[in-house]
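Pinned message: reference record for DUF5906 domain-containing protein
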Amino acid sequence: MLKLLQKECISDANFNIKISDNNIKVNAIVPSDSNKIKKEILGYENLPLFSPEILITQSQKLYNSLLQWEYRSVCLKKELVNVTNLEISILKAKCTNLIFIYNDKTSDINHLENFFLRFSFIYRVNISTISILSDKTTNRNTSSKRDNKSYQYKKAFERLIDNTITQESVNININDIVMKADEKMNVNLSNLYSALNQAGIYKYKIDGLDKFILIKNNSIIKELDKYQIKDIVLNEMKNKGLTLELEKIYQGSNFYFNQNTLSNLEHKRSLPEYIGEPGLEHFFFNGIVWKINKTSISQIKYEEFDSFIWESNVIDWYPNLEDDFFSISKNHLHQLTISLKEGYCDFLDFIINTSNVYWKIPNNNLSTDQLIEIEQHIINKITCIGYLLHTYREQSVTRAIIATDFIERGSKEEHGGTGKSLFGKALIEMLSTYYRGARNKNLFSDKHLLGGIDQTTKLVFFDDANKNFDWEQLYTLITGQIDINRKFQDPQVLDRERSIKFYITTNYAVHSHGNSHDRRFFYVVFSDYYGPDKKPSDDFETDFFSKTWSWEQKNRFYNFMAQCVKAYLKWGLVEAPKENLEKNKLRASINELFLDWAEDNYREFLNKETDKLMLFEQFKASLSEIDAKKFSSTSFKKNMKNFCKLKGFIFNPSKEGKDIKRNSTEYFEIYNINNS
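Predicted structure (tokens):
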């Protein structure tokens, strides 16, 4: 049980212990190889929190030159075969683009090629033609002539960097695109198309329209436009120094790279796009894929993956796989129980805090039932994360996840800030997500509501649904097909095999509309541990998913999310404890006007028999004329029955809940069995 789980904390860690609000907060200080590695990378300590690019070199002289030119740079003083995944992961976490600077005249080509095969997302820049960088550093105090030469070299280097990034790391053979015959330069379009195809650039039908794509690593699809294709060709010519050929392409670029001319590219008729698999999931990172089943998480290369994915589904992270942070099992009563590494993974601790619905009670005063309930909330959140991240569409499990609050709200209350939207942001980190704020009461009147969904979308996130949110509008979207109506385009129907899941947050209790509702929605419940007076950043001293979030914690986040998928594949969706959830649903089923009146007046009709019509008239007298017309005698009675259930009162006990009528007059008997 949870009280015992605190002994499961990592045995080789030191701990900071903070005591506040009668709760013990344990922060583990875990010995990590990452700190040692950071100290070994020359220049790491000078890097900012985040940078557009970081340049890597093996040469300290080259490193000094890059520093002199104010580039964000590091030096790996070791052979490339000895560079570790962890080193690259730590560096990639600090930038958008990692760029390896080398001189092919002084480098081991075999080691270079193997290095770029291992880390295919790293850009390569060969500076063998820029002698001032490759040979010696620049002294700013030399003559103006040398300074001018240095400036020219620097500009050439900057162009080389820019061209390399713009070129999308595409290796294209440009040798026979422009051919010389009879002292004239001519562009051979057949060779241009062939070179583009060999580089992985094709025509491909997307949403019924012919578009251009680039296939990277034989498995990653990226949509290109005609300008990007032109830049790929031109930049390769610039890097090769083909001045005359470049000029010829410039002169006719509007023809060679227009939509009609490029339509002659080879058409990829079908690519087996990854739409998920039963019992299996993949996380796609820079340069590596995690393969997840119900018993293990393993790493594979993209070459071992036999489907295609869109580049927007690749997570911009080079991960380091760790051991599990939690374990779910069944106890002797066949109940699910969980053991945890608390104080190690910030996001797991966030899940624990938002599941601790009894946080105001000191830990040593919690009952066994309360500890079990907290555990069930943790397991519920873990399996819901796993379900949403599992991209396969299981017809037997098509549910939208609703995030709601544990505490019982008054009819006019709504409390945000409990962590529901932050939970959703974690999903956005993992999945290509279509996000919509859901407070607008006319949300479903927008015929273009889902127009932002495309072929890469995996999740629809409706955030902050109001009390009038029309849940029935989602029924077909959840279990049937999705009609997409984009502005200025023909409507389209999303393939049923494509799995798009729904996550909705609300500060209000959700009223069940019967079986059709219940079989489509599943709930995660958040405690009020966080709220207006306390934010997650108060506990973790940083904002999740920000540039200030440490590499260690972000890497653990990705590990935790993979472990959630593994747990879901083994245990399926695990329900949250129902008692408070059902109570909040019941409250949502009672009209607000009635609830306000009944809460103020129930003592006047409690523990006695009362004329129903008289009560009804008293109720209507408390309302405006317009509001009074909204109620019938039947709706008044239905609200009264639900109010009795909510309060734990017994309705018409002498007739076992059936109607009490005498002389054509109906009466209510409402009793409190607790006499309170």
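Pinned by admin. Summary line: The CA atoms of residues 150 and 483 lie 59 Å apart.
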